[in-house]
Amino acid sequence: MGAALPIGDPAPPDGALPADLAVDPAADLGVYLHVPFCRVRCGYCDFNTYTATELRGARQDTYADTLIREVELARTVLGDAGAARPATTVFFGGGTPTLLPAGDLARMLAAVRDAFGLEAGAEITVEANPDTVTPAVADELAAAGVTRMSVGMQSSVPHVLAALDRTHTPANVGTAVAAARAAGLDVSVDLIYGAPGESLADWEASLETALGLEPDHISAYALIIEEGTKLARQIARGEVPEPDGDLQADMYELADARLAAAGFGWYEVSNWSRGGAAHRSRHNLNYWRGQDWWGFGPGAHSHVAGLRWWNVKHPAAYAQRLAAGESPAAGRERPDAEARLLERVLLECRIRAGLAIADLPPGRREAVAGLIADGLIEGLAAIRGRVVLTLKGRLLADAVVRALTD
């Protein structure tokens, strides 16, 4: 059911922010709405999600009302702290948000609009399983104000989908994309590479199928084996092989080449968009740039002005807290300067805009020359004061971060 929550300080029952919190009113405010329900648990997934048999005391049909209570609580908390401002982005993630009726998602979005307001041109994204998207669903979401749909394709090859425990029908990816397009939505397609039994030819077929859908944005993530998942247990028992790191590197290079040839530019290590900045995920860029966001729902994490907090994990415990008029926050923390620097380097190195060299401690700036010599960061960008990864550097991003922080 997802990784364990962090260990932090207790969060107050009313959710109040510390009185000394220095909020930047000009910082973007993103809103994340977690929908923790799935029909089937994929073997690789460690997100905080639940199938119907795992809910025990929580109901999908009342979930929207429960989450709206947290939105109303947040309006009071942010208002009291002088931190309220219109949301610049809203992201429905999960889980499978489109397992809920489109009307429930519309009510949740309306609650955010009523509580905070939405900036003009706000980006509103809904993640979707292809089997749950119909023209009527896409039209209802668009009418509610949704601007973008992220379709979980993962692969176009049946045996790869089976290895990932994905149950959607491959043909429905095209149906979902067409429905979203007809409704006037931007479309992103999500892919995973490196599944057990997936060949380079399989991956190339998935890439070509994804490009044939003509989306605005493609995310491509290397399969990572998370502790406690079904796939991790299968590997431990020797039933399936571990991902091959060299093959995954070849798959990444193939993806970057194919996407670039099709007019997609990388803007984060695992994300490409066409049309310059117009189709980038502004919500995810908020995370990578350390802006403010409030995460609603069980297990959701939030960040405002350097304060981080996280909600109780199970939907039943989440609902019980809110029914009692209490914040669902389980704990919170204020990372120190060293932790904030590490996180900033880790995140900003991954984006095309890069990291300002001047923001590194003087002793770590000396590592830049060696990273240029090793072909891991762009020399011209470094001359201009930024750490920007090369293609080789994207494959070895963790090594770049270690060099700049150790």
From TrEMBL:
| A molecular function (GO) term | metal ion binding
Which compartment or compartments is the protein found in?
Cytoplasm
Q: Which positions fall inside the Radical SAM core domain?
A: 23-258
Q: What is its main location?
A: cytoplasm
Signal peptide limits: none
Would the keyword Chaperone be found if you checked this record's keyword annotation?
A: yes
What's the stated role of this polypeptide? Probably acts as a heme chaperone, transferring heme to an unknown acceptor. Binds one molecule of heme per monomer, possibly covalently. Binds 1 [4Fe-4S] cluster. The cluster is coordinated with 3 cysteines and an exchangeable S-adenosyl-L-methionine.
Question: What protein name is recorded for this chain?
Answer: Heme chaperone HemW
Q: Which organism is it from?
A: Microbacterium sediminis
